[in-house]
Predict the structure.
Amino acid sequence: MEFENTIRKIIEKECEDYFLGIADLSLAENDILKQYESFFDEYPRAISIGITLPYTATRKTVDKNTKVYNETNQQLNAITVSLSKLLQRNGYKTLSIPKTEKVDDNNFISLHKLAANVANLGKIEKNGLLITPEAGSGVNWGTILTDAPLEAANQ
């Protein structure tokens, strides 16, 4: 248990400027997640990391494939790869879910949004947006799936 607490503290330090949550996917009651239950037998935890977008970026409604989104996608990819390597060096399996240049369609609920929701970082609205109390929908999300026995928000 002490070892897992040390790993968690390292993860929290790496993500201190971002949203961070850990979800136990085996406990998820979301119907969309349930279709992946066998996959989550191998990776029962999700580490969800969110970067708040600048206010001006969230106001753009026509083209969300802007430079700022691409930059935060690159940041999230770097963070998730780095943390995945840390967990792997310590004997855990990981799967870093990559960010793409295209932002999720508002009506599409991605694994990134689902993981953040299950980690109690925000609520998915009817329009498919994940809304956080602190930043509304202005957060870009990254996800790592793992078998590391980290304490989850929904335990």
Remarks:
- The CA atoms of residues 20 and 49 lie 5 Å apart.
- The first strand starts at residue 19 and ends at 24.
- The mean pLDDT is 82.
- Residues 67-89 form the longest helix (23 residues).
